[in-house]
């Protein structure tokens, strides 16, 4: 990362304090990703970091912070009744690193192609950042989101092991949901049981996403349990399970029908299987992502009156990238490649013309030198509980 | 008054079909009367502060929810009777805000348009969430405003004057309406159900992850929004350095363990934190003495949390209580004060704070009738290797603070 930043002309990489996901809860992805660089760079929650590109020791700034195996230089933000601003300590750390006239690469200022992909305005806290910046009037500040994003994109062996475990946990939660979902079960109880399984297996809290409605009705997406709703015969349940291990988030998704699925749903599931197999064929290491996008776009052609859609998103600490959708656009991805040792969440959706038929399935994939491999042995199928 | 479960069920059955497949559903059960109350009081306080409008920018999701019942919104609320202009993510809308503007791409442009349309180009704009406040963002020194979007607003409205309005909004949020209190009480009941689950299951040999997960399941099954729990598990009388806010991976409960839990529950966008400690064995005499002292200090201080008294007076009284009782053999009484609600974490005073070290604005803050505090004094001693604490949500009344929990306040022992 230092080499990449130096090559881009930066004297340091600067991660300012970013918005707290509890106050910035827009989408789960965005909220979850807002402080992801802190965790990636330091294994600490919600700190700021100054990482000089010349190899000097990085400095972390945070509240109640102490040296760790990873970060030996730390600066505290004091807390006395009401917390003190981070602007001063962040500016001081930049000045100590010799950045008074430096070119500073700021992480999280804007959405990137490789991180914070859904954060339309970045994730940086205004008051702290503007305050620090004002104390270095001769320095230059430019966005460096994708310099850290590029490092996050390609996983190390330890990270892959964490994602493998997270995917396995998510798949176990789906098994639990399939075991519990029955007509007459309160939706909140189903939600709660799924979350229990997630936590029993040691995942960090990551809300389950459930959609449950009678067949043919447009479904809301819930990220909290809903009282007053009881599953009925003929309902469709769509579950998106994110599990976290070692900070890394993997996702598995599944649709469940309570009762015999009507024919169009069986057709939709068959389309999912066909499309997924073809997506795997497209995941050739080294392929340009714009080219990959064009190929998956070709798989999204309507058939039997049903519209498949494919989404591929890099997995990691949250709001990762790149992100591809069969709907495009692909030009922004040009120049990025499908790298070995990258992990992706692949979602295959199928929708009827009026949106009332909607099936989704998803899994986490590792791209190796030899091609893609699933972490969990699952293939698209529609669970029918009769 | 408890939230009417039948009404909740009816509301869910009657809710409109999703506007698009997979539209997010955010709980939005407050009445239109509650909306009018909030907007009226906010306008009045903003007017008193000579502001022309209140502005909740991107990033301040908790204030956005208070203003709109939407979790992702930016709001311009003029001080006159014009309705607020709300920017939201497509397709979010609700009864309070049936026709928000939808942000396309970056939010800066949409927020600028909203401010200009409201006539704020040369106005005095009060910005919520710019920095730490007495009630809101008390642990976020620099507030919670998104830089890129807000910097664009400042750049494009060079003649407007922006002032921090965190406390103007926070102090309104601190005092709850009757409607809000019904939901807050339900949140407390849910948190206590989580504690009850732990009391039923916590025994030597129990896996920590399973204990954690069971308590969370119990709260979620009751409809709790984003429950949370901090937990410490360790041998009685030994300092714990293993505080977790996720499952305590690798921890198994053992004989004579001390288990501390802080349970966070949200219902109707009202959140509480309830604290309960457990001993998996006999309570030693030292802890029994601490329990007696904590009971005394809790009772005495609850009476002090009433309109007119200040936070500083409460903290000073609490922190000197044991000393005034003759020292209590090295037992020390300390304060843990927080706020309750949706992201209201203040007024916040932690056990290490002395009254005379608090910022003046916090020290002199007076309790108000109907304000929501979380009060968890503790009794600390070096030879206990920690502190015994209990408490949770309290409603400030003229007679003192009313503890909203139903559980007996005690150290729970499984001998």
Describe what this molecule looks like in 3D.
The complex is a heterodimer of chains A (386) and B (415). Chain A is an alpha+beta fold and 386 residues long. Chain A has two domains: 152 residues, Creatinase/prolidase N-terminal domain (Creatine Amidinohydrolase, Chain A, domain 1); 229 residues, Creatinase/methionine aminopeptidase superfamily (Creatine Amidinohydrolase), CATH 3.90.230.10. Chain A has ten helices and 18 strands. In chain A, the strands form four sheets. Chain A has a six-stranded mixed β-sheet with strand order 4-3-2-1-7-8, sandwiched between helices. Chain A is globular. Chain A starts with a helix and ends with a strand. The model of chain A has no long low-confidence stretch (mean pLDDT 94). In chain B, 34% of the residues lie in helices and 22% in strands. The model of chain B has no long low-confidence stretch (mean pLDDT 94). Chain B is built from twelve helices and 19 strands. A six-stranded mixed β-sheet of chain B has the order 5-4-3-2-6-7, sandwiched between helices. Chain B has two domains: 157 residues, Creatine Amidinohydrolase, Chain A, domain 1; 236 residues, Creatine Amidinohydrolase (Alpha-Beta Complex). By secondary structure, chain B is an alpha+beta fold. In chain B, a hairpin with a 2-residue loop joins β10 and β11. Chains A and B meet through β5, β6, α5, α8 and β10 of A and α1, β1, α5, α8 and β8 of B.
């Amino acid at each position: 990362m230092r080499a990449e930043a130096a090559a881009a002309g930066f004297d340091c990489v600067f991660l300012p304090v970013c918005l707290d996901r509890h106050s910035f809860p827009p989408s789960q992805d965005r909220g979850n990703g807002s402080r992801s660089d802190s965790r990636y760079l330091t294994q600490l929650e919600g700190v700021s970091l100054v990482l000089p590109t010349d190899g000097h020791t990085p400095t972390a700034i945070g509240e109640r912070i102490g040296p760790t195996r990873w970060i030996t230089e730390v600066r505290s933000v004091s807390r006395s009744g009401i917390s003190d601003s981070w602007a001063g300590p962040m500016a001081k750390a930049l000045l100590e690193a010799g950045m008074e006239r430096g070119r500073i690469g700021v992480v999280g200022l804007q959405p990137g192609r490789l991180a914070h992909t859904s954060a339309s305005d970045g994730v940086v806290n205004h008051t702290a950042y503007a305050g620090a910046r004002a104390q270095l009037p001769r320095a230059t500040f430019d966005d460096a989101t994708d310099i850290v994003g590029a490092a996050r994109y390609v996983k190390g062996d330890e990270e892959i092991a964490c994602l493998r475990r997270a995917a396995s946990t998510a798949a176990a939660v789906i098994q639990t949901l399939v075991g519990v979902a029955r007509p007459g079960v309160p939706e909140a109880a189903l939600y709660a049981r799924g979350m229990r399984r997630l936590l029993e297996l040691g995942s960090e809290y990551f809300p389950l996403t459930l959609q449950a409605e009678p067949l043919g009705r447009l479904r809301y997406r819930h990220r909290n349990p809903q009282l007053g709703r009881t599953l009925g015969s003929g309902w469709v349940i769509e579950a998106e399970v994110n599990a976290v291990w070692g900070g890394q988030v993997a996702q598995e998704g599944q649709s469940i029908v309570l009762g015999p699925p009507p024919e169009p749903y069986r057709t939709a599931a068959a389309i999912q299987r066909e499309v997924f197999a073809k997506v795997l064929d497209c995941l050739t290491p080294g392929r340009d992502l714009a080219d990959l996008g064009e190929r998956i776009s070709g798989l999204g052609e309507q058939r039997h009156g049903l519209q498949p859609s494919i989404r591929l998103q890099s997995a990691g600490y949250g709001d990762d990238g790149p992100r591809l959708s069969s709907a495009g656009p692909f030009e922004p991805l040009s120049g990025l490649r499908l790298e070995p040792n990258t992990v992706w969440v692949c979602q295959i959706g199928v929708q009827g013309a009026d949106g009332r038929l909607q099936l989704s399935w998803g899994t986490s994939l590792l791209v190796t030198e030899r091609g893609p491999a699933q972490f969990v042995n699952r293939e698209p199928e529609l669970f029918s509980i009769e | 008054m408890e939230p009417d479960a039948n009404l909740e069920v009816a509301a869910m059955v009657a809710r409109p079909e999703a506007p698009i497949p997979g539209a997010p559903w955010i709980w939005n059960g407050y009445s239109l009367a509650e909306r009018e109350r909030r907007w009226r009081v906010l306008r009045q306080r903003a007017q008193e502060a000579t502001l022309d409008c209140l502005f909740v920018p991107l990033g301040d999701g908790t204030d956005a929810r208070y203003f709109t019942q939407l979790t992702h919104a930016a709001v311009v609320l003029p001080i006159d009777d014009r309705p607020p202009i709300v920017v939201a993510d497509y397709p979010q809308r609700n009864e309070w805000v049936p026709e928000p503007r939808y942000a396309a791409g970056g939010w800066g442009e949409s927020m600028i348009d909203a401010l200009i349309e409201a006539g704020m180009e040369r106005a005095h704009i009060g910005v919520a969430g710019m920095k730490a406040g007495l009630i809101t963002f008390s642990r976020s020194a620099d507030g919670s405003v998104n830089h890129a979007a807000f910097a664009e607003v400042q750049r494009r409205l060079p003649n407007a004057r922006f002032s921090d309005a965190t406390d103007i909004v926070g102090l309104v949020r601190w005092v709850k309406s009757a409607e809000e209190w019904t939901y807050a009480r339900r949140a407390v009941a849910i948190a206590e159900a989580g504690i009850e689950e732990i009391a039923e299951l916590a025994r030597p040999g129990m896996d920590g992850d399973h204990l954690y997960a069971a308590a969370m399941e119990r709260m979620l099954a009751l409809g709790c929004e984003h429950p949370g729990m901090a937990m410490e598990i360790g041998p009685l009388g030994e300092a714990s350095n293993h505080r977790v806010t996720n499952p305590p991976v690798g921890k198994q409960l053992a004989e004579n363990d001390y288990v501390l839990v802080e349970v966070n529950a949200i219902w109707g966008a009202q959140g509480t934190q309830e604290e309960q400690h457990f001993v998996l064995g006999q309570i030693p005499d030292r802890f029994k003495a601490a329990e007696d002292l904590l009971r005394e200090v809790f009772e005495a201080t609850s009476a002090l949390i009433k309109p007119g008294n200040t936070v500083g007076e409460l903290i000073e009284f609490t922190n000197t209580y044991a000393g005034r009782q003759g020292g209590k053999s090295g037992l020390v009484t300390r304060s843990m004060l927080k706020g309750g609600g949706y992201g209201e974490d203040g007024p916040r005073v932690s056990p290490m704070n002395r009254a005379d070290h608090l910022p003046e604005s916090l020290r002199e803050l007076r309790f108000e009738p109907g304000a929501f505090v979380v009060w968890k004094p503790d009794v600390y001693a070096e030879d206990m290797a920690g502190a015994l604490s209990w408490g949770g949500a309290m409603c400030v009344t003229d007679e003192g603070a009313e503890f909203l929990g139903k559980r007996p306040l005690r150290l729970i022992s499984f001998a």
